[in-house]
């Protein structure tokens, strides 16, 4: 437990890192449903409030729930595609989305112990490969932030889901701001001492925001017009509706989310020097389900452990879960104080881009470090496990339309490079090296954590 001023500062750093991703999903879904601006603003406030609740559940922990690691929770992008499809169907709409989210949350709580039993399938060669793919996949997010968002983003025209081109993508001014933030962070990491080095990302973002304001890129009109206080009411839009197909689809998304979370928990265990056993995984995955259930109740969407913040733990070296708990409290306050959330939202994505490239690269580097402990010299099969798994993990990254001929119901599975890498690495390792035991898996995890603690 750090002193309160440090907790608040480090927690704010985590909030700034994940804020753009946290508010993107309610913006996309709200616009797809053609909700009025005040309802979209409420969706964002509700999302931030539920983010805070889910983060506190995950970090602080309750009996049987919460992994108690420095985790920030946010809405998963894996749910965007299915929810956009639901949004275009009048008989489903927003209330049908909330019904499927609530059902998926209950489903996640129930299946968490079964997913955690997969731990023996994740020896270091598998864990390192998955974490490497997580980092490489996240680099796309950081690079797009530096470019000013996505090259194209989902939209709805005449009732049809389409991709709208981003005319501001890749402008030289924005790229210059991202580079400036990157250089500030690197300078602080090299020459900063103690706490200054720990908040290098936050100071870099603040410096970038000041530069963006001076250049007229950061605007404050929404901050001035936003209200000071608002209350997030459960079931604000009405009673959720439950439809079978949306529920099944969202439960599939939940499985994808939990497998990705499993990899992130193992990455955090390696970074913090803590052994992640089956019981800890069960608590963490169950918190994903609880967070999603809370999301459906508080007018928002499925929640997962945000991988962006895993990279921040690696950059700062601050391993206290109370830091992210402080971030959870800040998110709660932002959900209740629309003016403050509008101020944070005003930070341009290009500012976050310079920080994202550093943080997400650290996740990939963590995976590479785990793989250095794998025996490639005497066991050549491990080379094939890594090579093919990374290749499959890159499909959705380098060829987004690769699976467009497959059934729509499989999209949540096939469009997740992390999940494809996990399936391939687990399957190939079992084929070449056989299945381990739970005791061996926990021993491997302890070895990796012990090595990290020694370093």
UniProtKB/TrEMBL annotation:
InterPro entries this protein is in? NCS2 (IPR006043), UacT-like (IPR017588), Xan_ur_permease (IPR006042)
- Please give the start and end residues of each transmembrane region: 7-29, 41-62, 69-86, 92-114, 121-143, 169-189, 196-220, 244-269, 322-344, 350-371, 383-403, 409-432
User: How does the entry describe its membrane topology?
Assistant: Multi-pass membrane protein
Superkingdom field: Bacteria
Pfam name, any one? Xan_ur_permease
The answer to whether the entry has keyword 4Fe-4S is no
Instruction: Drop me one GO molecular function for this one.
Output: xanthine transmembrane transporter activity
Q: Where in the cell is it found?
A: Cell membrane
- Quote the cellular component terms of the Gene Ontology held in the record: plasma membrane
Q: Know the name of this protein? A: Purine permease
